Amino acid sequence: MYSRWRTYSSYLREKYGEAVYRIGVDGGFSCPNRRADRSGGCAFCDGTGSIAVYQRRSESGYLRTSHYDAGTAETILPRLASIREQIEKGREFLSRRYKASSFSLCFQSWTNTYDSVENLRRIYDEGLSVMDFREFIVSTRPDTVPEPVLDLLASYRRNDRDVWVEFGLESSDDRTLSYIGRGHGRAEYMDAAERAHRHGLKVCTHVILGLPGEGRNEFVATARTVAEAESEAVKIHNLHIPGGTRLAEEYGEGIITAMSEERTLEAAELFLRSIPGDIIVERLVSETPYHRLLAPRVFPDKSLFLSRLERRMCENGTKQGDLCGTAHS
Questions:
Q1: Is pTM beyond 0.90 here?
Q2: CA–CA separation, 26 vs 109, rounded Å?
Q3: Relative to the CA of 224, which of 171, 175, 307, 319 has its CA 20 to 30 Å away?
Q4: Would 327 be classed as within a structural domain?
């Protein structure tokens, strides 16, 4: 167990008295930042929509050590037969691998509020009808949550079930957001977080460390923005450069690069120290399959990276929140 930051697993155990496992599904959504054929989009997006790894049955033959395969880089994974089938597959996988018995439902792929309220209600209802979920989580963009959508999400709150909205902020720097083609700015994120909280929803914020042109100052500014928005949780990703993306083209031309392990450890430590100690840290490293990944190619797996980050922070005597006077206990 990691002691230098507030882990998601410890939060779930404290709240529910047991381990809770997330089932991620693809609800068949698209993204307002992509064209009808799902081309275009953010500079780092390769068109897979962050589909859960255990739902990628077509990729099951690939390993972490697989070579980069240009033939798969731009493939758009087909929509699985139904939300119900995906949930059952997820439950079967998690139960077999982790002996899981308690679950959260996460609409994970693409922009999961990008549809009519009527369609959203049908999709959400279908997923939540499969079993009794501890938490309901919807991943989306800060510019795609009008009031009727937040009203709908709030209607799924219960005394024994929280509803979370995950917003992709990536960076608080509007110049960076414009460069990577996000299609929104810091102001839209702040407004969306405030309105989500007003509806009684919890907020998790996604950020990327190592975007082109960013360094320590930008990492700290993004951390302060997450804190200012009173985001209850954060997902931290180190920049990955998948094939078939605009960043891949710039990487191939030598315009940009990806951070090394040492720089990523330094950035993650700084970011953690710059956010309040009570923010839940749901993720600390990206996990793009290696056959779709151009860079970084030399990088430890998740467990090794987290162990090295824990050791680094122990040796440095640092903790989450210690730069803002709210160190993790």
A1: no
A2: 5
A3: 307
A4: no
